C-alpha cells in the first residue's frame, strides 16, 4: 500500500496553528452543539439541576477519541453556568505544586478543565482527590522528617476532565466524577450540519451535495470535517469560482488524496498490516501494534473504534480480524471462507 500525503489532513489530532480557527468555529452554547444527543441531554440535566439548587455541579468527565468536541463541551459547561474557565492539561501538571497554585487561584463556581487527564502525574492526582471531594488541598512545606502539611481551603469549583483513554484513569479518580459523558463518532448527517454551520461562519458557499461529500469523508470527526472544508474552500477559490459543489468537493479531495472513507494513516497502516502481514487475522492487538510501530493503547483506543464502526475490523476473542470490506477497501479480493487460517495447535 502506498502512503498518502493526506496523512496530516486526515489526522483527528489538531495541527499546528489550527487552534485559532477552531476557536472561531467552536459552538458556544449547548443548543448550538451538534450531535451527541445522549451526552447533551444528560449534561443539560446535570447543569440545570445545579443551577436551580444554586451549587456548582458535580465534576464531569468527558471521554472519547480526539476531535469529537470535548474541549468545546468543557467551554460550554462554563458558559452555561456563567462561570470562568481555567484550562490546563495532565502533562502540564507534573508537580503537585503546579496544581496547588492553579486550585488556590480558583474563584467560587469556576470551571477547571484538565485535558488528557489520564496523563496527570501521581502526586498531582492524589492532590486532586481531596480537592474534588472536600475542596481542600494539603500543601507540604519543607522536606524530609521535618516536612509538615498545611491544609488549605479552596473555593468550590467544577472539574471537567477530558480523556481519550478512560480505561487508563485510576479507580479513585474515576469515582470522583459525578457524571461521565461518553462521546461517540458523529453520523454523516450530523457532520453535514457541522460543515454547513462552519461554512456559514467562514463565509463559504457550499451546495447540499458538496457538504454531504465532505461530511462522508470526515471519519466521524468534526475536527476533520472543518479541516476538509477549509481545504476544499482553498481549491474552490483558486481553481473555481469559490462555490463548493459536489464536483468541486470531489476534485479537491482527490488533490489532497483523501481516502474515500476518510481513513487516516494509522487506520490504513493497521488494515494493511492485518491483511498483508497476518492474512486478515485473527491477530492480537499487541502484535498488530508492533507491526505498525504504535502503542497498543493507541491502536486500541484511537484507531480501532472507528475501524469497527466503519465495518472494516472485527474484535473477536481470538484477535483482530479484517472484514471483507477491509480487503475491498485496499483493492484486494477477500479470501474465500475456507482460505482463512484455521485454529492451530497453539490457539
Ligand atoms: N458538536 C459540534 N458541533 C460543531 N462543531 C464542533 C462540534 N464538536 C467539535 N466541533 C469542532 O471541532 C473542533 C475540535 O473540537 P474540540 O477541540 O472540542 O475537540 P476535542 O475532542 O477536545 O479534541 P482534542 O481532545 O483533540 O482537543 C473544533 O473546532 C470545534 O469547533
TrEMBL record:
Top enzyme category: hydrolase
Catalysis performed (reactions): ATP + H2O = ADP + phosphate + H(+)
Chain spans, region Head domain (RuvB-H): 260-347
Segments of this protein annotated with the region Disordered: 1-23
Subunit (UniProt): Homohexamer. Forms an RuvA(8)-RuvB(12)-Holliday junction (HJ) complex. HJ DNA is sandwiched between 2 RuvA tetramers; dsDNA enters through RuvA and exits via RuvB. An RuvB hexamer assembles on each DNA strand where it exits the tetramer. Each RuvB hexamer is contacted by two RuvA subunits (via domain III) on 2 adjacent RuvB subunits; this complex drives branch migration. In the full resolvosome a probable DNA-RuvA(4)-RuvB(12)-RuvC(2) complex forms which resolves the HJ.
Database matches in HAMAP family: DNA_HJ_migration_RuvB
NCBIfam families: PRK00080.1, ruvB
Protein name: Holliday junction branch migration complex subunit RuvB
Annotated organism of origin: Amycolatopsis endophytica
Amino acid at each position: 500500500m502506498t502512503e498518502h500525503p493526506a496523512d496530516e489532513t486526515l489526522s483527528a489530532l489538531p495541527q499546528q496553528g489550527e487552534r485559532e480557527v477552531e476557536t472561531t468555529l467552536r459552538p458556544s452554547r449547548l443548543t448550538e452543539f451538534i450531535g451527541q444527543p445522549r451526552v447533551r441531554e444528560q449534561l443539560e440535566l446535570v447543569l440545570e439541576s445545579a443551577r436551580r439548587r444554586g451549587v456548582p455541579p458535580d465534576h464531569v468527565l468527558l471521554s472519547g477519541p480526539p476531535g469529537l468536541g470535548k474541549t468545546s463541551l468543557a467551554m460550554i459547561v462554563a458558559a452555561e453556568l456563567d462561570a470562568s474557565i481555567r484550562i490546563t492539561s495532565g502533562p502540564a501538571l507534573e508537580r503537585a505544586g503546579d496544581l496547588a497554585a492553579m486550585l488556590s487561584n480558583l474563584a467560587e463556581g469556576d470551571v477547571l478543565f484538565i485535558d488528557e487527564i489520564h496523563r496527570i502525574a501521581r502526586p498531582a492526582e492524589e492532590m486532586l482527590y481531596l480537592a474534588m471531594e472536600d475542596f481542600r488541598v494539603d500543601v507540604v512545606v519543607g522536606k524530609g522528617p521535618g516536612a509538615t502539611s498545611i491544609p488549605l481551603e479552596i473555593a468550590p469549583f467544577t472539574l471537567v476532565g477530558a480523556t481519550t483513554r478512560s480505561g487508563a484513569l485510576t479507580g479513585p479518580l474515576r469515582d470522583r466524577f459525578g457524571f461521565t459523558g461518553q462521546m461517540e463518532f458523529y453520523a454523516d448527517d450530523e457532520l453535514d450540519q457541522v460543515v454547513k454551520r462552519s461554512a456559514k461562519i467562514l463565509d463559504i458557499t457550499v451546495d447540499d451535495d458538496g457538504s454531504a461529500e465532505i461530511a462522508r469523508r470526515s471519519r466521524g470527526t468534526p475536527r476533520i470535517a472543518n479541516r476538509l472544508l477549509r481545504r476544499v474552500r482553498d481549491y474552490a477559490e483558486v481553481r473555481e469560482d469559490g462555490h463548493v459543489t459536489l464536483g468541486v468537493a470531489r476534485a479537491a479531495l482527490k488533490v489532497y488524496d483523501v481516502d474515500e472513507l476518510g481513513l487516516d494513516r494509522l487506520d490504513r497502516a493497521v488494515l494493511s498490516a492485518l491483511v498483508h502481514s497476518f492474512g486478515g487475522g485473527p491477530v492480537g492487538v499487541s502484535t498488530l501494534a508492533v507491526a505498525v510501530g504504535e502503542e497498543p493503547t493507541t491502536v486500541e483506543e484511537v484507531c480501532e473504534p472507528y475501524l469497527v464502526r466503519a465495518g472494516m475490523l472485527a474484535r473477536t476473542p481470538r484477535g483482530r480480524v479484517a472484514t471483507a470490506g477491509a480487503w475491498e477497501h485496499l483493492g484486494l479480493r477477500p479470501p474465500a471462507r475456507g482460505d482463512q487460517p484455521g485454529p492451530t495447535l497453539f490457539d
